[in-house]
Amino acid sequence: MAAEMSRGKLAVTARLRSPVMRQAASTCEIHAWYHLWGAGFNGSALPALQMELTHANETVTLWQSPESSVYAWRELVAYPGRVPGKFQITFSSTQSFLQLRGLAIDDIEFRNCGLPQLMSQVCGPEEQKCERGSCVGKDRFCDGSDDCGDGSDESELECKSFRVCSFEADLCGWKTVPGLLTWNRNTSLDLVTLYGQPTRDHSSNSKAGYFLHVSYNQTDLMKNLARLTSPVFQATGNSSCSLVFYSYLYGSATNSINIYYVANATQTLVRGRTGDLGDYWFREKVDFNVNKDFEIVIEGVIGTGKKGHIALDDLILSPDCKQAAGKRAVVVPEINSSCSPEKFVCEDGECISQESACDFAVACKNSADEKFCGDTDFEAGSGGWRDVSVGQLQWVTMRASEALSPGTDHTTNTSAGSYLAMQRAPGQMVTAAKARTPPLGPSGLACSLEMFYWLQSDPQGFIAVSTVDHALRMHQLVWYIQGNGSMEWKKVTVPLGERPRPFQVELIGLVSPQGLAVPSVASVAVDDVKFVNCDPRVVPQEATELSCNFEKGLCGWYQDENDDFEWVRGTGQGLGSDHTTGNGFFMAMDPSAQEARGLRARLLTYLLDPAAEIQCFLFWYRMDGPQIGTLNFKIKHGGEAETVLWTRTGAQGSAWHLGSVTLHHQPQQKYQLIFEALRDGYLGHMALDDLSVKSGTCRAQEHCSFEASACGFNANGKHSWARQSNATGTAVTGPSTDHTTGTARGYYMIINTSKSSLPRAATLASELYVPLTHTQCLTFWYHLSTNSGSLNIYMEEQGARRQLFSVSSMQGDAWHYGSVAVQADGEWKVIFEAVGAGREQSYIALDDIHLKDGSCPEPGSCDFELDTCGWRSSSDPHLHGFAWGWKSGASPSKYPGPQEDHTLGTKEGHYTYFDASVLGHGGSRALLVSEHLPATMGACLQFWYHMDFLEHFYSGELRVKLYTPAGELMVWSTGGHQGQGWKNRMIPLHSPEEFQIVFEVTNGAWPIGGTIALDDVKYRDGQGCDLDQMLPVEDKTPTKSFLAAVAVGSILALIVLIALAASLRYWLKKSGSVSRTENSITSPGFDNITFSDDSIIISQRPKEGEEMND
């Protein structure tokens, strides 16, 4: 779903509304992914996106996007709570015409929203039957939530002996402690609208319902906590006094709610919750077993950093909490330090900045600032890990002797040792257990987390590690493993990388809560957690190793853990062989991987000291696939911005290519190197191997696109060549797009050939090339304006020049391809010379200069053995960036192709190809376009093609078209199954204007599968086609038997589809699943509903005053 800006109005609202639904359970969760883009998100007083619940003639906000939610797909989780009767969910976004921004929503899912299943058999020993026939846990009766779905578990008769305080009328005998912050009784209507505050109470799920909220006093920074005390209760004896309450901890990583009991003026901590639990009321249960009269104290503590919100609702005391006649003991916490709450207190009383705590570097004399930061063996407690679970599972520190499994810890390998274990919890939600560290950082590039884990579970269970960034409201999964039944301690090292402060590490685990009661079914634990190389001020010894073949690791290269997906070290993986040995390791980036959600993957070095003023950095790269994107090599000096030194865009074929960059260092200035992959879709891969560094400059670059630099080309004179793009150019108004990227942002070299700017010739000279033992081909693309003058190309060897090429006019506003043969016994350079013609506003532009092996092919011809010659994939943005590939039959690739080429007839021979299966359905196309060819009264195009599709059900089509300034003309086509092997074709051509030949692959209205390949394309001008020499080939007109087979097959397929659709509709009606109309909803609830329409654009806002519950 996408919403876009509608111009012309001061403010407009787009709304996406669900069907009318019924009966959401108290465990209901709504998950969705959203993406925001454009300017103005952070400057708006209103949230860019919010989700609302409409129920019982009231609309309440369930979730709203944080201020920083921009430029990435992010997951949201909202909790509607128990909703009886009809309701609707609405996404809305309000924007003004000054804020050009858009948003998208995908994968909306309702989890655990159905009411408990009706049971015909007897309930379990720990369950109790509801009036409607379902079974729920006995501890869910009289807990303030309608778990049965009919209210029978919360009926007045059932719960008459419980003491319930919903704060609707008063504090019910609970009292606040004076001299501290205050628990204030409020409704959401009373509070000033702030991000992260409660938008409803828990009791009634309404904006008008009351709850307690901690008010923060900004004028007295020494006060950071509020306390609420109960009446005095009798000693529990053999019974247990239980308190159920609903807490709201949201918007802060350091806020806390603590539960104490006070007996004989001594307070004892029973339970504490710290951190951001989520935007909802979560169930807590505390049992008190005290042999003296006691009071209960509920403490809310405002932490450091962002304040967030703390609130309470629905305090429920069990019948065994019997009030005593004693007086209350006023418990006021002592202030043991002169440090403000914003400071960290060392054990010797020294006050240090909170930024110095848990920053991986010792600041206190006794290391107190790093003791409780997550680096622990759990022998002395949790080591700083805090459980933030909200469901029926939790993380608990315990001795092995107290647990059913594992029977020993990892540290001591005895039952006396301790670890962090997953246990059952009193929470309400059906979700994973989570524990977090305190806020950490900053961390260095080599930072990693080491730990030992025990995972005895079926494949539904898992352990995962993620990082939490509260500033961006983002969770990033960094490691994950599924249950496999193993009963042993295993070690894992999880890269965390360079991260700014503050971030938290989150441990996530999930198994069946019932399975934890049986050790052979499920047991989960973690031990010996250690942070390694995380201090950013300490550089590891291996960090200086820039040369790397990746056979034993990444050397001095590290993943940027703040990017969107990762480079992966591997062998093959369907991405071809390595460059070093052919069967070794390399680094690969595959944007089709399931976890690759974002736009870039980066490899980084540490900030390093330069070894010499000038170095040459060499590397081998591969870029293959129909939507591969861009590979950049960057440098960053000190605190300066990153600079692109080298770049490639688009498919470069399934082969390794050498890249080289000269590094110019400044003395005493550190530098960092960066490889950055920017994807342009999900189809293709990039790879890196054999990185090396040597002293001195690199030799002249054989390939220059001018995207990153001028590649050592030297322009002479005051009025000379300049590197620019159309988007940023100032030298002269030139081509609207470059040739490399086909966009206004792409760079080229240009010179103003107007008489006032260029009174004489100006040259652009390359660096020196090495001698050539055999003929090579220098190719380039040029663009001339009207009456631009002349472009001349010279080869200079030992001071002597030889002219290779000259052009003074061209037809049309397009880039033209040129090539010249070069051979030299000594060092040489190429010189591009521009000679002005005297016309104003004229120019000559150059792009994509490439020196390659072999002689230059004839215009329009190519055998594809060395590259694709003058043939290029179209850069038309409307074609989704689909690019033809280039490979040999022997090249391992995830995209299939013929096993042998046509030229050589071997696996080593090369051809160009396109995997038509990536086009999907709906008329997508992929174009392979020739260089511009001069007008002809008669020419012949000959080529070999390979279309080994499956028969009948695949309708891929190969077309040949001519593009001219007057339009396009299709001259030949063939489709469907073409038999085995290479087929030959000759096509007579004529055109009164300059033209290009285009091979087009299209799929029509049906999806197709298979590869179309081309080889040995020959264009001969001035010659007709001798069709008698063309080998027999199937006619493009399908035979009658083929048509009959297609017709019969299509009819059978249609019958099957209709039968499946009817069966699915019948099943849906029987099961009462997803429905779009109110009248068809017969089920009392729903579960795991996913809206899966691919794309719907919301182009108009609803009418003013339109109701939500129609």
Automatic annotation (TrEMBL):
Disulfide bonds join 123-135, 130-148, 339-351, 346-364, 358-373. Residues 1-115, 163-323, 374-536, 546-700, 702-858, 860-1027 form the MAM domain. SUPFAM superfamilies: Concanavalin A-like lectins/glucanases, LDL receptor-like module. The keyword Nucleotide-binding does not apply. The keyword Plastid does not apply. GO terms for cellular component: membrane. InterPro entries: ConA-like_dom_sf, LDL_receptor-like_sf, LDLR_class-A_CS, LDrepeatLR_classA_rpt, MAM_dom, MAM_domain-containing. Keywords: Disulfide bond, Membrane, Transmembrane, Transmembrane helix. SMART domains: LDLa (SM00192), MAM (SM00137). The chain crosses the membrane at residues 1042-1068. Signal peptide: none annotated. It comes from the Eukaryota. CDD domains: LDLa, MAM. This is MAM domain containing 4. It comes from Crocodylus porosus.
